[in-house]
Amino acid sequence: MLYYLIKRLGLSAVVIGLVVLVLFSLLHLIPGDPATIALGPRATPEAIARYAAKMHLDEPVWRQFAIYIGNALTGDLGLDVFSNRPVTAIIMERIGFTLALVGAGMSWAMLLGIPLGCLAAVRPNSWLDRVTGVLSVGTIAVPSFLVSIWALLIFAVHLRWLPAIGAGEPGDTADQLTHLILPAFAIGLSWVGYLARMVRASMLEVMGETYIRSARAFGLHPRQVVFGYALRVAILPTITLIGMGFGGMISSAVFAEIIFARPGIGKLIFDAVMARNFPIVQGAVLVATGLYILVVLFSDILIAWFDPRVRESL
Amino acid sequence: MDADIRESAARERREKLRLFLTNWQGLTGLILVTLFFASAIFAPWIAPYDPNALDVPSRLSGPTWEHLAGTDQLGRDTLSRILYGGRVALKIAAIGVSVALVVGLILGMIAGFGPRWLDSLLLLLFDTVRSFPTIVLALATVALTGPSLGMVLAIVIVTSIPQYARVARTATLTLRNTDFILAERSLGASMTRTLLHHVMPNVIGPLLILAAMDVPVVVTIEAGLSFLGLGVLPPTASWGTILNEGYLVIRDAPWMVIAGGIPLILTTLGFTFLGEALRDIFDPRMGKGR
Question: I need a surface site. Which of A135, A182, A190, B143 has the fewest CB within 10 A?
Fold first, then answer.
C-alpha cells in the first residue's frame, strides 16, 4: 500500500507539473509579446511593464518557468491586472461558492442515484428498472448548461419559486441555500443517471456472486444483503466514476455559475477571460485543475485501500 | 471451407441487423441522427427564411404561422437559424471527431506497440490533457487567442484524443502477443505494415462506437462555448449563439431558449441512443465500464 501511495502521489505531482507547464507555455506559444497578449489591448504601458517585471519576462523562458513554479509552490499566483491584489486571495474568496455548489450537486445526485440503481438491480426488468434505464440515458444526454437555462426559465422566471441570480446575502444561511437549489439541481441531474446506471451494472454483477447467495441462504433480510454486503463491493467502480467525473462536474459548475451569476471560481475565470485578465485566468484554472487532480487521486487511493488488486496494477 | 466461413459471417451480420432492428433505443437514435444530418445538409432548401434576414416589426414574437419557432430581438426567424446552426454543429462534429479518432488511433497503437518508455510518456501526456476540466481549458485558451471556430475545433480535438488513444492502446496491447501478430512479425513485416494491416482492423470497431458516443460531447462543447460567446461568433447562427441571445431576453421572450435547446437535446439523445445500441450489439463487454 505504501509503495502504491508513493507511486500514485508521484504521478499526480508530475501531472500537476505538466499542467502548470501547459498553462505557462500557452502564453509563450502565441506569437507576440507575452505581456501584451496576457493583458489584452486595453492594458496601460505601466500595467504591461509591471507584469513583465513580475513574470521576469526579460529572463530566459526556462528561468521564468522555474520562478513561476517556485512562486506557485509558495502560494503566490501573481497579481490581478486591474485591482493589483494577489490572485491567491481573490481565488480563496470565491472557491467556497464553487465547493458548496459541487458538493450539493454531487450529494443530491448520490442520494437519489445510488438507491435507484440498487432498486433497479434487485428487480431487473421490472417497471422500476425500465423507468430508471430510460431516465438514466435521458438525463445523461441532456447538456448540463441547458438544464441550467431551462431550470432558470421554469423555476425562477416563470414560476418565481426560487431566486434567479446571485449566491444570497452573506451570513443569511437560508437565503444562501435557496440560491443554491437551482444550480445544484442543474449540475447534479445527469449524475443521477450516471450513478444509477453504474450502481445497477456493478450491483447485478455482484448479486450473482456466491457469497451473496450464502448471505441469503443464512436468512439475512434482503435489505441487509443489498445495502450491507453487495453495495459495499458494487460501490467501488462508482467511486472511480465519481472521481473521474469530477472534472465534468467542474465544467458544469462553470456554466451554472455564469448562468445564475454565482460568484464562484467559474464565474471568476469567465469574467477574467472577458476582461483579458490573464493572471487571474492562469491562477484560477490552475486551482480548478489541481482540485480535480486531487479528487481523482483521493478516489484512486480509496479504491486501492478497498481493493488490493488495484495496488498491483500501477 | 471458405464458403462456410463467408456464410457464417453473413449469418452473424443478419443476426446483428435483427438485434438492431428490434432495439427501440437504437432505432430512435438512428431516426434522430438521420434527422440531424438531413436537416443540417438540406438547411438552405428547407429553411423558410434567410437566417440573417431582419424583420424588425415582428421581433421577439412567439410561435406564429409565419415564424414557427418565433423570432429573436432582431426579428430573425429562429427556425431558420436553428437549421443553419445544425450545419455548424455538424461541421464541428464531423471534423473534430474524425481528426481526434485518427490521431488517437495512431497514438494509441504506437503506445501499445512501441517501446515501454514511449508508452509511459504518451500515457502521461494523455493523463495531463484529461486532468483539465474541458471547459476550463477552453476558457484559458480562448482568453489568449480570442474566440473562433478554429479554436473550438482545436479544443475539441485535443480533449478527445486521449480517450480514443486509451481504447486503441488497450486493444493493441492485447493483440500484441497473439499468434497471428507474432507470425506476421517473425515473417519480417515492418511495424507500420503490422499496425496498418493487422492491428488497425481489429482496433477500429470499438473506436467507431466511441466516436458515436463522442458526438454529443463535441456538439455540447461547441454549443456551450458559443453560448458563452467564446465559440462561434454572432451573427453566425449556432445553437449556442441562439441560446446566448435567448438567455439575454429570457424574461421577455422564453421561446428562444426553448427552441434553441430542443435540437441540442434531440441530437445528443440520438447519438447516445445509437452509440449505446451499437455497443450493446457489437461489444457487450464494453458496456460494463459505464
Answer: A135
What is the per-residue pLDDT across B79-113, written as a single tens digit (0 to 9) for each? 888 888 888 899 999 999 999 999 999 999 888 88
Kindly report, residue by residue over B41-67, the tens digit of the pLDDT: 887 887 777 777 777 676 667 777 777
Helix (H) or strand (E) holding A255: helix A231-259
At which residue does the C-alpha cell 493583458 appear?
Answer: A39
Whether residues B135 and A254 touch (CB distance < 8 A) is answered with yes
The CA-based dihedral angle spanning residues A267, A273, A274, A277, taken in that order and rounded to the nearest 10 degrees = 110
Q: What is the pLDDT of residue B104?
A: 93
Alpha helices in B177-290 (DSSP H): 179-186, 191-193, 200-227, 239-248, 255-282
- The residues, ordered by sequence, that sit 6+ positions from A40 with a Cβ below 8 Å of its Cβ are A275, A276, A277, A278
Cα–Cα distance for residue pair B156/A153, rounded to 1 Å:
29
Please report, for residues B171, B225, B237, B243, the alpha-carbon distance to residue B81 in angstroms, rounded to integers and kept in the order given: 42, 17, 5, 11
d(CA B37, CA B48): 18
Please indicate whether, in this complex, the C-beta atoms of B136 and A19 are within 8 angstroms of each other: no
Best of B144, B215, B219, B251 to substitute, by most chain A Cβ atoms within 10 angstroms, is B144
d(CA A83, CA A21): 26
The B residues from 253 to 272 touching A (CB cutoff 8 Å) are 254, 257-258, 261, 264-265, 268-269, 272
A308: amino acid identity, one letter: P
Q: What is the pLDDT of residue B73?
A: 74
- pLDDT beneath 70: ranges in chain B: 1-2, 56, 58-60, 69, 75, 283-290
Going by the DSSP 8-state scheme, the letter that residue B233 receives in this structure is: P
pTM: 0.84
Which residue in chain B is spatially nearest to A295 when comparing CA positions? Answer: B131
DSSP class per residue in B133-200: -HHHHHHHHHHHH---HHHHHHHHHHHHHHHHHHHHHHHHHHHHTSHHHHHHHHTT--HHHIIIIIIH
B55 min Cα distance to partner chain A (Å): 26
Q: Three-state DSSP class for B208?
A: helix
CB B263 within 8 A of CB A166: no
Would you give the DSSP letter of residue A86?
A: B
Q: Is B228 on the interface with A (CB under 8 A)?
A: yes
